[in-house]
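FORM 7B: Structural annotation worksheet

SECTION A. Query
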Amino acid sequence: MRHGTNIKIVVVVTLLEISVFQWRLLSFCILAVLIMTLALYPPSRRSWFSVAGAVVLAVSLFLPFDIAVGSYHYGMRVGMSSGGPHLVEFVVGMPMHTRLIENYGEYISGGCTWPVPIPPRWILVWN
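SECTION B. Predicted structure
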């Protein structure tokens, strides 16, 4: 297989992932690192690296957690932060706000509906 064919396969797989599966902020960060590595480090343009990068990207779509980049995250954050990096419960649907605050101290509400088949359970926040 030629190098150009491998790149085309990775591009097609990535486009399928974008259109079919849910994207999380963690996946966008991994994608940015892969693109910068491929652009700035020529030895990484081998087919095994492209395939490994596509696999890591695909696995990141199904992890039970996501990350908050700075103060940006999906949904609305409710409650008081305990400070430092920690996992916050991610809730979709009509949550019982008082019970969630009592149990977890804070949570992130994704709203009544979430546009992905498998939403994350937790979000890693820094503040």
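SECTION C. Observations
The mean pLDDT is 80. The longest helix spans residues 3-20.

SECTION D. Sign-off
Analyst initials: ____
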